[in-house]
Design brief:
The chain is built from 2 helices and 13 strands. It is mainly β.
């Protein structure tokens, strides 16, 4: 049997222990991390750790694969001025982007000669072209690099609008002063049920070795549903290489709300 003094000490120690536990619990409540999308835990209804659910970035966006660049090429437009083109692909099945930023860099053995930055968009599982025209350079470039600098992904898998190329024709036009220019005449048709404020049409010509011969792009304004439009891309000089293929792509950035005029 404990003495009266022993029981008193035991009671005191129990009270002190309880106070310590209570204090520790209160401290724990104050410093307990609030569930978040960066706490490395699967909580708050997340589909996977730190993604999905009602609060966090969709998992398809968090795990989105990088855009693939297949090639980047350069060709002289005239003395000291160059056209460039690249072919890229978004291999994600259900992730798109209305904001893809890129840079073309022209270089030679001494380093960088010129750069051109730009912005494009990509539908889910889309392979497409990127073109830039008339890049001035003080030296003759020996090559070009194409880099995707940033992408803002969206969890959406919209179908690319059906704007089809129904005709393409290469022709050489002779001016009154004897100069000869290369042209590509095309007819594109809006087979969608939407009127578009603008559509981007890109032209790329390649030789038998898939070298770039020419790159160009035009913007079609006020492109109505069911409408066909005639376009002509012009180069200041006649192509000297033999054209093996002409690629024409017509695209609409539906990620830009102002692109669609009236849905039918």
């Amino acid at each position: 049997m404990l003495s009266w003094r022993g029981r008193r000490y035991r009671l005191i120690f129990s009270i002190i222990g309880g106070v310590v536990l209570l204090a520790a619990f209160l401290v724990f409540l104050r410093v307990k991390p609030v569930p978040s999308c960066t706490d490395n835990r699967r909580n708050q209804g997340e589909e996977e750790t730190d993604c999905g659910g009602s609060s966090c970035t969709p998992c398809s966006v968090k795990h989105a694969k990088d855009i693939i660049t297949y090639w980047a090429r350069i060709v002289p437009l005239r003395s000291g001025v160059y056209d460039v083109a690249a072919e890229i692909e978004n291999i994600n099945e259900a992730v798109s982007s209305g904001d893809v930023n890129y840079t073309f860099t022209l270089f030679d053995g001494q380093g960088v000669i010129a750069e051109r930055t730009g912005n494009t968009f990509m539908y889910a599982h889309e392979r497409t072209l990127v073109t830039e025209e008339a890049i001035a350079a003080d030296r003759v470039p020996t090559g070009v690099r194409f880099v995707i600098t940033s992408v803002i992904w969206q969890a959406r898998a919209d179908l690319r609008p059906a704007i089809v190329v129904v005709r393409r024709e290469y022709a050489v036009v002779e001016e009154s002063d004897g100069r000869r220019k290369s042209t590509i005449n095309a007819i594109v048709r809006n087979d969608t049920g939407n009127d578009f404020r603008r559509a981007l049409v890109q032209f790329v010509t390649l030789d038998t070795q898939d070298n770039l011969i020419g790159a160009n792009k035009l913007v079609v304004e006020d492109f109505r549903a069911g409408q066909s439009r005639s376009l002509t891309a012009v180069w200041p000089e006649e192509f000297t290489a033999t054209i093996a293929s002409i690629r024409i792509e017509s695209r609409v950035n539906i990620f830009d709300p102002s692109a669609i005029v009236t849905p039918h």
